[in-house]
Amino acid sequence: MPRNKLKKYADIDTFPNVIYRPDSLAKKWNSAFFKNNNPITLELGCGTGVLTLELARRHPDKNYIGIDNKRARVWSGAVNALFDELLNVAFITTRIEALEEFFGHGEISEIWITFPDPYPKPSKSNKRLISPELLNKYRNFITPECVFHFKTDDEKLFDFAIETLDNEKAVIQQIAKDTHGDRTIPDDVKIKTYYEKRHLEEGKTIKYVRFTLN
Fold it and tell me: Are 156 and 118 in contact (CB under 8 A)?
């Protein structure tokens, strides 16, 4: 393992804003971590936390938690959050499938899913972050009004998402086949992540859907 990655692992173990076990914070994020009653937003597959951090800066009246299973990626976002003294930001390093261990019923009011792995093989479709299996897991810890934001450059994944949401009787609030060319899309949705910038440079269009689950 590269020495730089080992140093990041050592650093991140000391960061107060990075959690990798549920422990006493499970189902008590507002009272035990954020010390307020503000709504909590998750970003699934947050990478280095570009979106999580920018949303937290724009909306200090909300709490944000970035989720990623790669600790070396989360290191960058955690460092920047500490440097900027963003007290409404935390990161969790875990698999998406394990999130039920970290959150209780009705604890999450908003979820961002941005540029997830498309898992193109049909045999791995249940790993897609918009799959019926994972949507049912999210239902266990979201509020009834929880808003989802889904962005991807992958046409097949987007079509799969729309079909899945239709089958799951989700309420689709907005769809865009070209996010950055659509003037009706909110500014927050147009925040560019690292991968989004790369996709745009390659001439790809960004698809977006906002929805709620019944």
Answer: yes
Alpha carbons within 13 angstroms on the beta-carbon side of residue 109 total: 9
In the numeric block, which tokens belong to residue 117?
Answer: 């792995």
CATH of 1-13+23-104, one of 3.40.50.150, 3.40.50.300, 3.40.50.2300, 3.40.220.10: 3.40.50.150
Assigned token pair, 68: 């990623």
What are the residue numbers of the active site? Answer: 117
Q: What average pLDDT does the chain have?
A: 93
User: pLDDT, tens digit, for every residue of 15-43?
Assistant: 999 998 877 788 899 999 999 999 999 99
- Architecture category of domain 108-134+143-214 in CATH: 3-Layer(aba) Sandwich (3.40)
Q: Where are the domains of the chain?
A: 1-13+23-104, 108-134+143-214
Give strand ranges (E) for the chain: 18-19, 40-44, 63-68, 89-93, 108-114, 142-152, 171-176, 207-212
